[in-house]
């Protein structure tokens, strides 16, 4: 018993946090898809196919499957940048008439209730950093000056982080005042394209910091999509690093927005099978959590038909496994969590204990120590599945 008490005390922080985290009453599935917006014109067709597919899949209430669109509001204007010999940055905004078809496809899906736009960034890079890198890196220079609207997936990964200067590694932090200005501008551009202020934000490559969150909050953002941890830099190896916070769904950032955790990955073009959606949903449902699934537009541009088929099959397998599954937007989820809406949040003790039990195995070293100390036995009696 003494040993058990010691183990419980040693892990008190993460144990209590997982008890405080709300438990959902229903299985919830949200497909989160990033990188749409300014860019290749082939997106319009991909978006139309996705919209039709999502409208075919409905939950018990008749609501269609929902996919968030992490939106990028501009790409480089290659010819103009080339004309300046890479000394000036010029942008091609999403509001440019050449993107009319892409915007129309997004708007149609939003009107049909299958797309929810969220702020991914003005651009998928920090322009001064890309300009600086272009002076020494021929690949970046070619990318920045290409005549066709750029595919941001083609940039070296560190440069895809918007909220640091990764022109050299390790990256350097940006001035918070500059971040504030940049966010105010991208929020205004988001509103110009979608006639709504951004309520949900997701940082490119999941690198961001307190200054970004404060600026987002000021712009009206209520929910921030996270992978459960916040990286604030690119380290010497170019990887996301300098993690300064970990978070659970429903916790609030210093600046006020609600953190949501997205940690199931479904990229059909990389070979992920449809069953992965159902397995992810099962794991999160046992934990009393929403299942936020990360995917990207490249699946639907590079291997369009196969990825669409895999997504539809995955949604159907998930619905078959959990017929009481609900489709909902991240904003609705965040608001339900903050309001502790009894329509969504479990209040009965037994299901709460079972969900808590299922959450414990993710705590680093806790699983092993609870086994070694014998604490796993009484915990197993609490129910839950892992
Ligand atoms: Zn992205």
Q: How would you explain this protein's 3D organization?
A:
By secondary structure, the protein is an alpha/beta fold. The protein has one domain: Alpha-Beta Barrel (TIM Barrel), CATH 3.20.20. Helix content is 43%, strand content 16%. The chain contains 16 helices and 17 strands. The chain has helices at 2-10, 12-20, 43-56, 78-83, 100-111, 127-134, 138-144, 176-194, 210-219, 275-286, 297-302, 304-321, 330-339, 349-360, 366-373, 376-381, and strands spanning 28-37, 67-72, 74-76, 91-93, 115-121, 164-165, 172-173, 200-201, 223-226, 229-230, 233-234, 240-241, 245-246, 258-261, 264-265, 291-296, 326-327. Strands 1, 2, 5, 15, 16 and 17 form a 6-stranded parallel β-sheet that branches. It has a 3-stranded parallel β-sheet with strand order 8-9-14. Helix 2 (12-20) crosses helix 14 and helix 3 (43-56) packs parallel to helix 5 (100-111). Bound molecules: zinc ion. Zinc ion is lined by residues 34-35, 70, 120, 124, 204.
Please write the CATH class name: Alpha Beta
The parts where pLDDT drops under 50 for at least 5 residues are none
| Sheet/helix structural class | alpha/beta
Bound molecules: zinc ion
Brief write-up:
By secondary structure, the chain is an alpha/beta fold. It contains 16 helices and 17 strands. The protein has a single domain (24-345), classed as Glycoside hydrolase/deacetylase (TIM Barrel), CATH 3.20.20.370.
């Amino acid at each position: 018993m003494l040993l058990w008490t010691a183990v419980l005390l040693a892990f008190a922080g993460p144990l209590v946090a997982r008890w405080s985290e709300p438990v959902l009453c229903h299985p919830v599935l949200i497909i989160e898809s990033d990188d749409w917006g300014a860019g290749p014109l082939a997106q319009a067709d991909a978006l139309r196919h996705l919209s039709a597919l999502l409208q075919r899949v409905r939950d018990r209430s008749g609501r269609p499957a929902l996919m968030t669109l992490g939106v990028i509001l501009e790409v480089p204007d290659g010819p103009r940048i080339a004309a300046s010999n890479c000394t000036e940055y010029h942008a091609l905004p999403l509001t440019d008439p050449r993107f009319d078809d892409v915007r129309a496809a997004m708007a149609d899906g939003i009107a049909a209730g299958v797309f929810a736009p969220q702020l991914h960034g003005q651009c998928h890079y920090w322009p001064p950093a890309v300009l600086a890198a272009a002076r020494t890196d021929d690949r970046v220079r070619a990318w920045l000056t290409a005549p066709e609207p750029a595919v941001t997936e083609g940039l070296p990964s560190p440069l895809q982080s918007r909220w640091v200067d990764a022109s050299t590694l390790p990256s350097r932090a940006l001035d918070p005042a500059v971040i504030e200005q940049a966010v105010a501008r991208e929020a205004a551009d988001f509103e110009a394209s979608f006639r709504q202020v951004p309520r949900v934000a997701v940082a490119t490559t999941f690198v961001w910091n307190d200054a970004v969150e404060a600026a987002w909050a000021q712009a009206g953002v209520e929910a921030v999509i996270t992978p459960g941890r916040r990286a604030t830099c690119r380290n010497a190896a170019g990887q996301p690093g300098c993690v300064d916070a970990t978070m659970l769904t429903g916790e609030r950032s210093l600046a006020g927005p609600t953190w949501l955790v997205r940690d199931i990955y479904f990229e059909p073009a990389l070979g992920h099978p449809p069953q992965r959606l159902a397995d992810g949903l099962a794991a999160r449902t046992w934990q009393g959590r929403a299942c936020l699934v990360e995917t990207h537009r490249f699946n639907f541009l590079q291997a369009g038909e196969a990825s669409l088929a895999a997504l539809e099959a995955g949604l159907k397998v998930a619905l078959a496994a959990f017929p009481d599954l609900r489709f909902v937007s991240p904003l609705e989820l965040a608001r339900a969590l903050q309001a502790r809406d009894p329509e969504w949040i479990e209040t009965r003790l037994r299901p709460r204990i079972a969900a808590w039990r299922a959450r414990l195995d993710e705590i680093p070293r806790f699983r092993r120590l609870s086994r070694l100390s014998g604490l796993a036995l009484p915990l197993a009696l609490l129910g839950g599945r892992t």
